[in-house]
Protein backbone atom coordinates (compact mmCIF):
# COMPACT_ATOMS: atom_id res chain seq x y z
CA UNK A 1 0.00 0.00 0.00
CA UNK A 2 1.49 3.42 -0.95
CA UNK A 3 2.44 5.78 1.79
CA UNK A 4 -0.24 8.46 2.52
CA UNK A 5 2.17 11.28 1.78
CA UNK A 6 2.69 10.00 -1.80
CA UNK A 7 -1.09 9.92 -2.37
CA UNK A 8 -1.38 13.57 -1.31
CA UNK A 9 1.43 14.66 -3.69
CA UNK A 10 -0.25 12.99 -6.70
CA UNK A 11 -3.62 14.74 -6.26
CA UNK A 12 -2.49 18.24 -7.32
CA UNK A 13 -0.81 16.88 -10.43
CA UNK A 14 -3.94 15.01 -11.50
CA UNK A 15 -6.07 18.11 -10.92
CA UNK A 16 -3.76 20.18 -13.12
CA UNK A 17 -3.92 17.62 -15.91
CA UNK A 18 -7.70 17.49 -15.71
CA UNK A 19 -8.02 21.28 -15.92
CA UNK A 20 -5.74 21.36 -18.94
CA UNK A 21 -7.76 18.70 -20.73
CA UNK A 22 -11.05 20.52 -20.08
CA UNK A 23 -9.67 23.74 -21.44
CA UNK A 24 -8.48 22.02 -24.59
CA UNK A 25 -11.92 20.48 -25.13
CA UNK A 26 -13.65 23.81 -24.69
CA UNK A 27 -11.37 25.54 -27.18
CA UNK A 28 -11.80 22.76 -29.68
CA UNK A 29 -15.58 22.80 -29.35
CA UNK A 30 -16.17 26.54 -29.42
CA UNK A 31 -13.41 27.82 -31.70
CA UNK A 32 -12.32 31.50 -32.11
CA UNK A 33 -14.63 34.07 -33.84
CA UNK A 34 -13.18 35.50 -37.10
CA UNK A 35 -11.80 39.10 -36.99
CA UNK A 36 -14.08 41.77 -38.60
CA UNK A 37 -13.07 42.83 -42.09
CA UNK A 38 -11.96 46.53 -42.38
CA UNK A 39 -13.87 48.63 -44.92
CA UNK A 40 -11.81 49.83 -47.82
CA UNK A 41 -11.24 53.64 -47.86
CA UNK A 42 -13.02 55.58 -50.62
CA UNK A 43 -10.93 56.21 -53.71
CA UNK A 44 -8.99 59.47 -53.59
CA UNK A 45 -10.00 62.32 -55.91
CA UNK A 46 -7.97 62.62 -59.11
CA UNK A 47 -6.14 65.79 -60.17
CA UNK A 48 -6.45 66.41 -63.92
CA UNK A 49 -4.80 69.64 -64.96
CA UNK A 50 -6.31 72.33 -62.72
CA UNK A 51 -9.42 70.29 -61.90
CA UNK A 52 -9.96 67.91 -59.01
CA UNK A 53 -12.41 65.08 -59.79
CA UNK A 54 -14.24 63.18 -57.05
CA UNK A 55 -15.89 59.76 -57.58
CA UNK A 56 -19.65 59.96 -57.71
CA UNK A 57 -20.14 58.27 -54.32
CA UNK A 58 -17.32 60.03 -52.49
CA UNK A 59 -18.49 60.95 -48.92
CA UNK A 60 -16.85 64.40 -49.02
CA UNK A 61 -19.17 65.58 -51.79
CA UNK A 62 -21.99 65.89 -49.25
CA UNK A 63 -19.87 68.38 -47.30
CA UNK A 64 -19.02 70.64 -50.24
CA UNK A 65 -22.08 72.84 -50.60
CA UNK A 66 -22.14 75.27 -53.51
CA UNK A 67 -24.24 78.23 -54.59
CA UNK A 68 -24.40 80.29 -57.82
CA UNK A 69 -22.76 83.70 -57.98
CA UNK A 70 -25.23 86.55 -58.42
CA UNK A 71 -24.89 89.90 -60.15
CA UNK A 72 -23.75 92.82 -58.03
CA UNK A 73 -26.09 95.75 -57.50
CA UNK A 74 -26.21 98.76 -55.22
CA UNK A 75 -25.27 97.69 -51.72
CA UNK A 76 -25.24 99.45 -48.38
CA UNK A 77 -21.82 99.44 -46.73
CA UNK A 78 -21.54 99.74 -42.95
CA UNK A 79 -18.60 101.83 -41.74
CA UNK A 80 -17.59 102.69 -38.16
CA UNK A 81 -18.16 106.30 -37.14
CA UNK A 82 -18.16 108.62 -34.14
CA UNK A 83 -20.05 111.83 -33.41
CA UNK A 84 -18.05 114.87 -32.32
CA UNK A 85 -18.75 118.56 -31.82
CA UNK A 86 -19.02 120.75 -34.87
CA UNK A 87 -15.73 122.66 -34.61
CA UNK A 88 -17.10 125.45 -36.78
CA UNK A 89 -19.65 126.11 -34.02
CA UNK A 90 -17.46 125.32 -31.02
CA UNK A 91 -15.32 127.53 -28.80
CA UNK A 92 -12.71 126.32 -26.31
CA UNK A 93 -11.84 128.94 -23.71
CA UNK A 94 -8.37 129.11 -22.11
CA UNK A 95 -6.99 131.70 -19.65
CA UNK A 96 -5.22 134.62 -21.32
CA UNK A 97 -3.53 135.63 -18.02
CA UNK A 98 -2.48 133.71 -14.95
CA UNK A 99 -4.51 133.96 -11.76
CA UNK A 100 -7.00 132.31 -9.40
CA UNK A 101 -10.63 131.36 -10.04
CA UNK A 102 -12.87 133.52 -7.82
CA UNK A 103 -16.31 132.92 -9.36
CA UNK A 104 -17.97 130.38 -11.66
CA UNK A 105 -21.11 131.65 -13.36
CA UNK A 106 -21.95 128.72 -15.70
CA UNK A 107 -22.06 124.96 -15.57
CA UNK A 108 -22.52 122.13 -18.05
CA UNK A 109 -25.86 122.52 -19.80
CA UNK A 110 -26.06 126.30 -19.38
CA UNK A 111 -27.33 128.11 -22.49
CA UNK A 112 -25.18 131.14 -23.28
CA UNK A 113 -25.05 134.04 -25.72
CA UNK A 114 -22.08 136.03 -27.05
CA UNK A 115 -20.63 137.96 -24.12
CA UNK A 116 -22.17 135.80 -21.38
CA UNK A 117 -19.80 135.75 -18.37
CA UNK A 118 -18.76 132.19 -17.52
CA UNK A 119 -16.17 132.78 -14.77
CA UNK A 120 -13.97 135.44 -13.18
CA UNK A 121 -10.27 135.21 -12.40
CA UNK A 122 -8.33 137.38 -9.94
CA UNK A 123 -5.25 138.06 -12.06
CA UNK A 124 -2.33 140.34 -11.11
CA UNK A 125 -1.06 139.95 -14.68
CA UNK A 126 -4.32 141.33 -16.01
CA UNK A 127 -4.08 144.11 -13.40
CA UNK A 128 -0.69 145.01 -14.84
CA UNK A 129 -2.25 145.21 -18.30
CA UNK A 130 -4.97 147.49 -16.91
CA UNK A 131 -2.29 149.69 -15.32
CA UNK A 132 -0.45 149.88 -18.63
CA UNK A 133 -3.67 151.04 -20.26
CA UNK A 134 -4.22 153.72 -17.63
CA UNK A 135 -0.62 154.89 -18.01
CA UNK A 136 -0.95 155.04 -21.78
CA UNK A 137 -4.10 157.15 -21.44
CA UNK A 138 -2.30 159.60 -19.12
CA UNK A 139 0.63 159.86 -21.52
CA UNK A 140 -1.75 160.50 -24.38
CA UNK A 141 -3.54 163.25 -22.46
CA UNK A 142 -0.22 164.92 -21.63
CA UNK A 143 0.96 164.64 -25.24
CA UNK A 144 -2.20 166.29 -26.52
CA UNK A 145 -1.81 169.22 -24.11
CA UNK A 146 1.81 169.63 -25.11
CA UNK A 147 0.83 169.59 -28.78
CA UNK A 148 -1.77 172.30 -28.18
CA UNK A 149 0.84 174.44 -26.45
CA UNK A 150 3.39 173.97 -29.23
CA UNK A 151 0.84 175.00 -31.85
CA UNK A 152 0.08 178.22 -29.98
CA UNK A 153 3.79 179.00 -29.64
CA UNK A 154 4.40 178.23 -33.31
CA UNK A 155 1.60 180.57 -34.35
CA UNK A 156 3.19 183.27 -32.19
CA UNK A 157 6.54 182.66 -33.87
CA UNK A 158 8.24 181.52 -30.68
CA UNK A 159 9.13 177.92 -31.66
CA UNK A 160 10.42 176.51 -34.87
CA UNK A 161 8.35 174.30 -37.14
CA UNK A 162 10.56 171.28 -36.51
CA UNK A 163 9.73 171.46 -32.79
CA UNK A 164 6.03 171.42 -33.65
CA UNK A 165 6.51 168.44 -35.94
CA UNK A 166 8.41 166.56 -33.22
CA UNK A 167 5.58 167.19 -30.77
CA UNK A 168 3.01 165.97 -33.31
CA UNK A 169 5.01 162.73 -33.77
CA UNK A 170 5.20 162.20 -29.99
CA UNK A 171 1.47 162.67 -29.73
CA UNK A 172 0.82 160.16 -32.53
CA UNK A 173 3.03 157.57 -30.78
CA UNK A 174 1.22 158.14 -27.49
CA UNK A 175 -2.13 157.75 -29.21
CA UNK A 176 -1.03 154.46 -30.82
CA UNK A 177 0.23 153.08 -27.50
CA UNK A 178 -3.00 154.05 -25.78
CA UNK A 179 -5.07 152.30 -28.45
CA UNK A 180 -2.91 149.16 -28.21
CA UNK A 181 -3.14 148.94 -24.43
CA UNK A 182 -6.87 149.68 -24.40
CA UNK A 183 -7.53 147.09 -27.11
CA UNK A 184 -5.73 144.39 -25.14
CA UNK A 185 -7.62 144.95 -21.92
CA UNK A 186 -10.96 145.51 -23.67
CA UNK A 187 -10.55 142.15 -25.40
CA UNK A 188 -10.48 140.34 -22.03
CA UNK A 189 -12.40 142.71 -19.77
CA UNK A 190 -12.80 146.30 -18.63
CA UNK A 191 -10.10 148.75 -19.65
CA UNK A 192 -11.23 151.57 -17.39
CA UNK A 193 -10.47 150.13 -13.94
CA UNK A 194 -7.61 148.35 -12.22
CA UNK A 195 -9.69 145.73 -10.37
CA UNK A 196 -7.54 142.84 -11.67
CA UNK A 197 -10.74 140.91 -12.49
CA UNK A 198 -10.35 138.89 -15.67
CA UNK A 199 -13.64 137.72 -17.11
CA UNK A 200 -14.00 134.48 -19.12
CA UNK A 201 -16.89 135.15 -21.51
CA UNK A 202 -18.48 133.15 -24.31
CA UNK A 203 -17.89 134.41 -27.81
CA UNK A 204 -20.70 132.40 -29.46
CA UNK A 205 -24.27 131.35 -28.76
CA UNK A 206 -24.67 127.76 -27.65
CA UNK A 207 -24.51 125.47 -24.65
CA UNK A 208 -21.72 124.80 -22.17
CA UNK A 209 -20.82 121.15 -22.76
CA UNK A 210 -17.62 120.96 -20.73
CA UNK A 211 -16.26 122.67 -17.61
CA UNK A 212 -12.77 121.97 -16.27
CA UNK A 213 -12.21 124.38 -13.38
CA UNK A 214 -13.00 124.63 -9.66
CA UNK A 215 -13.27 127.57 -7.23
CA UNK A 216 -9.85 128.73 -6.06
CA UNK A 217 -8.02 126.88 -8.81
CA UNK A 218 -4.79 128.44 -10.07
CA UNK A 219 -4.59 128.82 -13.84
CA UNK A 220 -1.80 129.85 -16.18
CA UNK A 221 -1.78 130.93 -19.82
CA UNK A 222 0.68 128.14 -20.70
CA UNK A 223 -1.98 125.59 -19.74
CA UNK A 224 -3.52 125.63 -23.18
CA UNK A 225 -3.20 123.95 -26.52
CA UNK A 226 -3.62 120.36 -27.76
CA UNK A 227 -3.84 117.78 -25.00
CA UNK A 228 -4.80 120.33 -22.34
CA UNK A 229 -8.48 120.58 -21.36
CA UNK A 230 -10.08 123.97 -21.86
CA UNK A 231 -11.67 125.80 -18.94
CA UNK A 232 -14.97 125.83 -20.83
CA UNK A 233 -16.19 124.28 -24.07
CA UNK A 234 -19.17 126.01 -25.65
CA UNK A 235 -20.83 124.59 -28.75
CA UNK A 236 -24.02 124.65 -30.77
CA UNK A 237 -25.30 121.03 -30.38
CA UNK A 238 -27.95 121.43 -33.11
CA UNK A 239 -25.25 120.53 -35.64
CA UNK A 240 -22.67 117.78 -35.18
CA UNK A 241 -19.74 116.36 -37.07
CA UNK A 242 -19.43 112.63 -37.72
CA UNK A 243 -16.00 111.10 -38.23
CA UNK A 244 -16.12 108.04 -40.50
CA UNK A 245 -13.28 105.54 -40.93
CA UNK A 246 -13.52 104.60 -44.60
CA UNK A 247 -11.52 101.93 -46.37
CA UNK A 248 -9.61 102.64 -49.56
CA UNK A 249 -12.21 100.85 -51.68
CA UNK A 250 -15.00 102.98 -50.18
CA UNK A 251 -13.50 106.41 -50.87
CA UNK A 252 -14.96 106.60 -54.37
CA UNK A 253 -18.48 106.53 -52.90
CA UNK A 254 -17.85 109.26 -50.32
CA UNK A 255 -17.08 112.41 -52.26
CA UNK A 256 -17.97 115.76 -50.62
CA UNK A 257 -21.69 116.34 -50.89
CA UNK A 258 -22.60 112.64 -50.82
CA UNK A 259 -25.59 111.84 -48.62
CA UNK A 260 -25.60 108.84 -46.29
CA UNK A 261 -27.45 107.53 -43.26
CA UNK A 262 -26.31 107.25 -39.67
CA UNK A 263 -27.43 104.77 -37.01
CA UNK A 264 -26.70 104.78 -33.27
CA UNK A 265 -27.37 102.12 -30.65
CA UNK A 266 -29.54 104.48 -28.57
CA UNK A 267 -32.23 104.62 -31.31
CA UNK A 268 -32.55 101.20 -32.98
CA UNK A 269 -34.05 101.30 -36.45
CA UNK A 270 -33.80 105.11 -36.74
CA UNK A 271 -31.72 106.59 -39.57
CA UNK A 272 -30.28 110.09 -39.24
CA UNK A 273 -29.43 111.90 -42.50
CA UNK A 274 -25.86 113.10 -42.95
CA UNK A 275 -23.74 114.67 -45.69
CA UNK A 276 -20.04 114.23 -46.47
CA UNK A 277 -18.26 117.53 -45.83
CA UNK A 278 -14.58 116.67 -46.36
CA UNK A 279 -12.33 113.70 -47.14
CA UNK A 280 -8.74 113.36 -45.94
CA UNK A 281 -5.95 113.26 -48.53
CA UNK A 282 -3.89 110.74 -46.53
CA UNK A 283 -4.36 107.24 -45.16
CA UNK A 284 -3.96 106.66 -41.43
CA UNK A 285 -0.84 104.42 -41.25
CA UNK A 286 -1.98 102.66 -38.08
CA UNK A 287 -5.52 101.73 -39.17
CA UNK A 288 -5.11 101.92 -42.98
CA UNK A 289 -8.32 103.94 -43.17
CA UNK A 290 -9.19 107.35 -44.58
CA UNK A 291 -10.87 109.92 -42.36
CA UNK A 292 -14.13 111.25 -43.74
CA UNK A 293 -15.97 114.11 -42.02
CA UNK A 294 -19.72 114.41 -42.30
CA UNK A 295 -22.30 116.91 -41.09
CA UNK A 296 -25.38 115.75 -39.16
CA UNK A 297 -28.34 118.03 -38.34
CA UNK A 298 -29.39 117.62 -34.70
CA UNK A 299 -32.19 120.10 -34.12
CA UNK A 300 -33.93 117.86 -31.55
CA UNK A 301 -30.56 117.22 -29.81
CA UNK A 302 -31.13 113.48 -29.61
CA UNK A 303 -27.60 112.80 -30.80
CA UNK A 304 -24.77 113.40 -28.33
CA UNK A 305 -21.10 114.11 -28.75
CA UNK A 306 -18.72 111.12 -28.65
CA UNK A 307 -21.52 108.67 -29.53
CA UNK A 308 -20.37 105.65 -31.52
CA UNK A 309 -22.34 105.24 -34.73
CA UNK A 310 -22.55 103.27 -37.96
CA UNK A 311 -22.46 105.07 -41.29
CA UNK A 312 -24.62 103.44 -43.98
CA UNK A 313 -23.16 104.33 -47.38
CA UNK A 314 -24.77 103.15 -50.61
CA UNK A 315 -22.27 101.99 -53.23
CA UNK A 316 -22.87 101.01 -56.85
CA UNK A 317 -20.74 97.95 -57.63
CA UNK A 318 -20.26 95.68 -60.65
CA UNK A 319 -19.16 92.05 -60.62
CA UNK A 320 -20.25 88.76 -59.03
CA UNK A 321 -21.53 88.45 -55.47
CA UNK A 322 -20.68 85.34 -53.41
CA UNK A 323 -20.90 84.51 -49.70
CA UNK A 324 -17.85 85.57 -47.71
CA UNK A 325 -17.24 81.94 -46.70
CA UNK A 326 -16.50 81.07 -50.34
CA UNK A 327 -13.34 83.21 -50.50
CA UNK A 328 -10.07 81.80 -49.19
CA UNK A 329 -6.70 83.54 -48.84
CA UNK A 330 -3.63 81.73 -50.19
CA UNK A 331 -0.60 83.88 -49.50
CA UNK A 332 -1.60 87.26 -50.89
CA UNK A 333 -4.12 85.89 -53.39
CA UNK A 334 -7.86 85.45 -52.96
CA UNK A 335 -9.27 82.21 -54.34
CA UNK A 336 -12.71 80.63 -54.82
CA UNK A 337 -13.44 77.04 -55.86
CA UNK A 338 -15.83 76.60 -58.77
CA UNK A 339 -17.86 73.46 -59.36
CA UNK A 340 -17.66 73.14 -63.15
CA UNK A 341 -19.75 69.96 -63.13
CA UNK A 342 -20.97 67.50 -60.46
CA UNK A 343 -17.95 66.25 -58.52
CA UNK A 344 -15.45 68.37 -60.50
CA UNK A 345 -13.88 71.49 -58.96
CA UNK A 346 -11.25 74.01 -60.00
CA UNK A 347 -9.65 76.99 -58.21
CA UNK A 348 -10.06 80.55 -59.49
CA UNK A 349 -7.96 83.52 -58.49
CA UNK A 350 -10.27 86.51 -57.99
CA UNK A 351 -10.02 90.19 -57.17
CA UNK A 352 -12.19 91.78 -54.52
CA UNK A 353 -14.35 94.76 -55.36
CA UNK A 354 -15.91 94.92 -51.92
CA UNK A 355 -15.67 92.69 -48.86
CA UNK A 356 -18.53 92.80 -46.39
CA UNK A 357 -19.21 90.73 -43.28
CA UNK A 358 -21.58 88.36 -45.12
CA UNK A 359 -21.09 88.92 -48.85
CA UNK A 360 -18.14 89.65 -51.12
CA UNK A 361 -18.24 91.37 -54.50
CA UNK A 362 -15.66 89.98 -56.94
CA UNK A 363 -14.61 92.42 -59.63
CA UNK A 364 -12.84 89.78 -61.77
CA UNK A 365 -12.12 86.06 -61.93
CA UNK A 366 -15.71 84.76 -61.68
CA UNK A 367 -18.77 84.97 -63.89
CA UNK A 368 -22.33 85.45 -62.70
CA UNK A 369 -24.12 82.09 -62.44
CA UNK A 370 -21.06 79.92 -61.80
CA UNK A 371 -21.32 77.55 -58.85
CA UNK A 372 -18.87 78.31 -56.04
CA UNK A 373 -18.17 76.19 -52.96
CA UNK A 374 -19.48 77.98 -49.86
CA UNK A 375 -19.19 75.26 -47.18
CA UNK A 376 -15.87 73.62 -46.28
CA UNK A 377 -13.90 75.52 -48.92
CA UNK A 378 -10.77 75.11 -46.76
CA UNK A 379 -11.28 71.32 -46.80
CA UNK A 380 -11.36 71.39 -50.60
CA UNK A 381 -8.21 73.55 -50.63
CA UNK A 382 -6.51 70.88 -48.52
CA UNK A 383 -7.59 68.14 -50.95
CA UNK A 384 -6.08 70.13 -53.81
CA UNK A 385 -2.79 70.50 -51.90
CA UNK A 386 -2.60 66.75 -51.14
CA UNK A 387 -3.40 65.85 -54.76
CA UNK A 388 -0.67 68.18 -56.03
CA UNK A 389 1.87 66.68 -53.63
CA UNK A 390 0.99 63.14 -54.73
CA UNK A 391 1.19 64.13 -58.40
CA UNK A 392 4.61 65.75 -57.87
CA UNK A 393 6.11 62.78 -55.98
CA UNK A 394 6.68 60.43 -59.01
CA UNK A 395 8.25 63.22 -61.02
CA UNK A 396 10.65 64.01 -58.17
CA UNK A 397 11.61 60.30 -57.86
CA UNK A 398 12.27 60.01 -61.60
CA UNK A 399 14.44 63.10 -61.55
CA UNK A 400 16.46 61.74 -58.63
CA UNK A 401 17.20 58.51 -60.56
Explain this structure.
This protein is of the alpha+beta class and 401 residues long. It is built from 4 helices and 24 strands. The chain has helices at residues 4-30, 124-155, 161-188, 377-400; strands at 46-48, 51-53, 66-68, 70-71, 74-85, 90-93, 99-104, 111-112, 117-122, 197-201, 206-211, 218-219, 232-235, 239-246, 259-264, 272-283, 290-297, 308-316, 320-323, 328-330, 333-341, 344-355, 359-364, 371-373. Strands 1, 2, 4, 19, 20, 21, 22 and 23 form an 8-stranded antiparallel sheet that branches. Helix 2 packs antiparallel against helix 3. The protein is elongated.
In short:
This protein is of the alpha+beta class. It contains four helices and 24 strands. Helix content is about 30%, strand content about 35%.
The overall average pLDDT, rounded, is 85
SSE order, one letter for each helix or strand: HEEEEEEEEEHHEEEEEEEEEEEEEEEH
Percent of sequence in beta strands: 25-35%
Distance separating the two termini: 86 Å
Radius of gyration: 45 Å
For the report, how would you describe the main beta sheet?
8 strands, antiparallel
Low-pLDDT stretches are 1-19, 21-31
